Amino acid sequence: MADSEAFKKIVDDGYAFKGPAFRLGVAMLDGKVVPQTFISIPLKTLNRHGLIAGATGTGKTKTLQVLAEGLSNASVPVLMMDIKGDLSGVAAPGSMNPKVQERADQTGTTFEPGKFPVELLSLSNEPGARLRSTVIEFGPVLIAKILGLNETQEGVVSMIFKYCDDKKIPLLDLKDLIKILQYAANEGKKEMEAEYGKISTTSTGTILRKVIELQQQGADLFFGEPSFDINDLMRIGPDGKGMISIVRVTDMQNRPKLFSTFMLGLLAELFADMPEEGDMEQPKLVIFIDEAHLIFQEATPALLQQIEMVVKLIRSKGVGIFFCTQNPQDIPASVLSQLGLKVQHALRAFTAADRKTIKQAAENFPETKFYEVDKILTEMGIGEALVTLLNEKGIPTPLVHTYLVAPATRMDTLTEEEISRLISQSRLVSKYNTPVDNESAYEILTAKLEEAARESARAATEKAEAKEAAKTSRPKKEESILDNTIVKQAGRTAASILTRTLLGALGLGATRRRKKGIFG
């Protein structure tokens, strides 16, 4: 009993916040709910990022819904990556059933079904407003990191971007980038080297192959115009609730490079464009990344470094990032150390490797005398989690086994009819779903090469015509009798006979003179 009272006091003191907060659940001890020990999340610390982890079927998705609902109710816009397609239920009210009623009674809450303003977005051909960005908005540094280029190749990319900037050649989509790479390796190489230095054909070939690899994962759908305005992620609904934007990426699991490209581009743009805010009473935007391992599984060291840097610095812009994954080890340690809120659902221990992972996960939590963390990690039920976060002073709260509240929205997906109705009401679909193909590097360089080919053909034609004209304008020599072949042959024959006759005569005379000298 003393331990129970001590536990209750520690929880009450640790989770007593002065500023605005919303309820996540109630504390548990020895497998039972401790009444009136409410676990809440202060809005002020939600820009300190977080982690929601746990095995399949332990309730991670419902935790995401509860967090999104609490933020939206506080007029904080939310962006969610929906990999499995089951987060769209926040657009529809939930329904009462015995399990939901029991959870409401246990957590001291009143279940009130509700729905929230939702905007569906898409990176591919999924229904929703299309998310796009231009190549030039990514810039040479980010493009190089996404493609995993070395220092030499990164220099070539920077040179190409500089050339396009100087020559007013827009780089909008991947076909523009491919065209300028081909141009730099062939027709434009001499021109570019004269202004910017040596360009290795090997480097341009390698970069081109990596761009095509990105293209094969469907990046053509992402790079282009109209470019998405990040301000459209930070809208407030007509009822004062924060807009919940859901990016439908159910087809991204086999295209992790495209997913990580989108996420890094989005974070970089938010960091570059949003003003410095410092610590705010509540965040301006909170991003939930479901199946977060997709960002990291094919990331190069340079890309991981970029993500780590953005996660560290974007907090001061008023943006919070929450990673949702099955295993905390899916998140690099350098990123994991930046996460203030941790909601750890149950883990499964089927193998020795699983037990080792659970032991490592247990070591990531604050020390507690009330729980055997590595043991309780395998014993928690659905909708239960170990929770620790940062209080308003930035100090970690006590670790608490928490019985989570039920979401007020539907714990299932929307139907196709409901999705169609939601899209028909969207003002972003009409704004972004008509692609624009403005004149850019592809058209400019193609026209330039075609003009060069026409000039070359014109010059060759003029040269040939001039040669032919010179040949036809030369005056013809009149053929004389001496030019006749027969006459020439007869002349040579006559000359030969005459020569022999003269030589013979000269020889005979010499003979006669010698004979006269001898015989007197």
Can you give a write-up of this model?
The chain is built from 18 helices and 12 strands. A 12-stranded mixed beta sheet has the order 2-1-12-11-10-3-9-8-4-7-5-6. It is about 45% helix and about 15% strand. It has helices spanning about 1-15, 60-75, 100-105, 135-145, 150-165, 175-185, 190-195, 200-215, 255-275, 295, 300-315, 335, 350-360, 375, 415-425, 430, 440-475, 485-520, and strands at about 20-30, 30-40, 50-55, 80, 120, 130, 245-250, 285-290, 320-325, 340-345, 385-390, 400-405. The chain has about 525 residues and is α/β, with parallel strands linked by helices. Strand 1 and strand 2 (about 30-40) form a beta hairpin.
Distance between the first and last residues' Cα? 172 Å
As for the CATH topology of the largest domain, it is Rossmann fold
Sheet with the most strands, sense and barrel status: 12 strands, mixed
Helix share of residues?
Answer: 40-55%
Please report the number of helical segments: 18
What structural class should be given to the helix and strand makeup? alpha/beta
What's the shape? elongated
Question: Which superfamily, in CATH terms, is the homologous superfamily of the largest domain?
Answer: P-loop containing nucleotide triphosphate hydrolases
